């Protein structure tokens, strides 16, 4: 019998872990003093165990430890030499700073972002497009303050909000901040630090005209929608060239009034755009007066990328069950899901064959500790099967050519 063409000496998880830099993780751990008073369950082991739990989709520490025990003979290929106890695992999630997992994510993203780029935007200016939004993760315990009014029954769930910026070229988060869900989105705008002449796109939840002025002074171009209750005055209307998209209805300069007694003014550009798909008018504002009106509309349309990312994360790494009842443990688990999503995205970018992310995730989850060469399999999943069929045909052909190889070579003969 021929050897499986997809066999390799590392389980799938081990191949995914190869994208991590173990040396940098240890360096970050030392800087954060994350391994102080730790005997065996060091930072790298903690990262590996959390990724094992996230990829497998385990719901508790107990399930994770049992999963590790069931793969005892394979753990050495993950760099593990023992199985952590539940109490040690729980203590690590509570005490080890979540900043470590944050740095693991950013280190891995920075090392591999060159292979993730897949932008359809052709203009050089639009390749510097960043998209900002937030998503809320509901918690079953009131660990962090929830958003909205208190319900009549008094039972209000807590929540954590992930404020995220993605690079439009690779659709991967390059900035993430976690806050209680009750915190308003716009306060995170002051933390945005982008190069000059970058574009950042966000929805109306991030309205902050004072910060818009800061962006303008730093030559960072924003694109967002105009709030319905915005107070503004039209100053100058621009001509709409014939080659601009027919959906552009108006292009004008406006002054937005804000602050105490509406005494402060922010200069912006307002674009009214008719969208045939949604059968409605959108009003965009920006501090960029160079790009055409339809290009501004296209930039805002690209904002949908971040919604697809949130959908991908929630569908493939659902955060419904947490390994701890404290804020640190919850953030560690969220960062672990982000790292797992990044590792699978890197793998996907290195494979020429087009795969849906969810299909790849299903195979990885069910074969996580199998010794399958992920590159060979995902490039040609039927190769091993075709080889097996060819071998069977060759054996059948040989048996027909030499009847003595058959157990009953003289079928139907009389003795």
TrEMBL record:
An example Gene Ontology biological process: DNA transposition
UniProt domain DUF4372: residue ranges: 9-80
Domain Transposase IS4-like intervals: 127-340
The keyword Kinase belongs to this UniProt entry's keyword annotation: no
Keywords linked to the UniProt accession: DNA recombination, DNA-binding, Membrane, Transmembrane, Transmembrane helix, Transposition
Pfam families reported in the protein's UniProt record: DDE_Tnp_1, DUF4372
InterPro entries the UniProt entry points to: DUF4372, RNaseH-like_sf, Transpos_IS4, Transposase_11
Name of protein: IS4 family transposase
Species of origin: bioreactor metagenome
Record lineage: unclassified sequences, metagenomes, ecological metagenomes
């Amino acid at each position: 019998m021929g050897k499986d063409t997809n066999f390799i000496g590392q389980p799938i998880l081990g191949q995914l872990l190869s994208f991590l830099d173990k040396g940098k993780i240890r360096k970050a751990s030392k800087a954060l003093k994350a391994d102080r008073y730790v005997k065996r369950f060091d930072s790298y082991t903690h990262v590996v165990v959390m990724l094992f739990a996230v990829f497998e989709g385990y719901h508790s520490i107990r399930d994770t430890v049992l999963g590790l025990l069931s793969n005892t003979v394979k753990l050495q290929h993950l760099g593990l030499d023992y199985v952590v106890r539940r109490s040690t695992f729980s203590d690590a999630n509570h005490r080890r700073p979540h900043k470590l997992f944050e740095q693991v994510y950013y280190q891995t993203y920075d090392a591999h972002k060159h292979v993730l780029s897949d932008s359809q935007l052709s203009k050089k200016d639009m390749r510097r497009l960043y998209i900002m939004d937030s998503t809320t993760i509901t918690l079953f315990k009131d660990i962090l303050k929830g958003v909205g009014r208190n319900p009549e029954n008094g039972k209000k769930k807590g929540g954590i909000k992930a404020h995220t910026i993605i690079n439009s070229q690779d659709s991967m988060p390059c900035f993430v901040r976690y806050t209680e869900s009750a915190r308003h989105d716009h306060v995170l705008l002051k933390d945005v630090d982008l190069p000059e002449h970058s574009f950042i796109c966000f929805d109306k939840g991030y309205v902050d005209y004072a910060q818009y002025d800061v962006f303008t002074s730093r030559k960072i171009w924003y694109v967002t929608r105009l709030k319905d209750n915005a107070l503004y005055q039209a100053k100058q209307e621009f001509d709409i060239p014939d080659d601009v998209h027919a959906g552009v209805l108006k292009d004008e300069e406006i002054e937005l009034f804000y602050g105490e007694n509406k005494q402060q003014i922010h200069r912006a550009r307002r674009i009214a755009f008719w969208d045939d798909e949604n059968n409605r008018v959108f009003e965009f504002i920006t501090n960029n007066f160079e790009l055409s009106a339809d290009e501004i509309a296209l930039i805002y349309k690209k904002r949908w990328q971040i919604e697809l990312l949130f959908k991908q994360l929630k569908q493939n790494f659902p955060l419904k069950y947490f390994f701890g009842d404290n804020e640190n443990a919850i953030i560690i688990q969220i960062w672990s899901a982000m790292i797992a999503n990044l590792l699978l995205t890197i793998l996907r970018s290195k494979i020429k064959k087009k795969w849906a992310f969810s299909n790849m995730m299903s195979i990885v989850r069910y074969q996580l500790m199998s010794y399958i060469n992920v590159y060979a399999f995902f490039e040609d999943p039927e190769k091993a099967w075709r080889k097996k069929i060819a071998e069977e045909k060759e054996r059948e052909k040989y048996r027909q050519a030499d009847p003595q190889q058959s157990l009953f070579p003289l079928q139907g003969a009389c003795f």
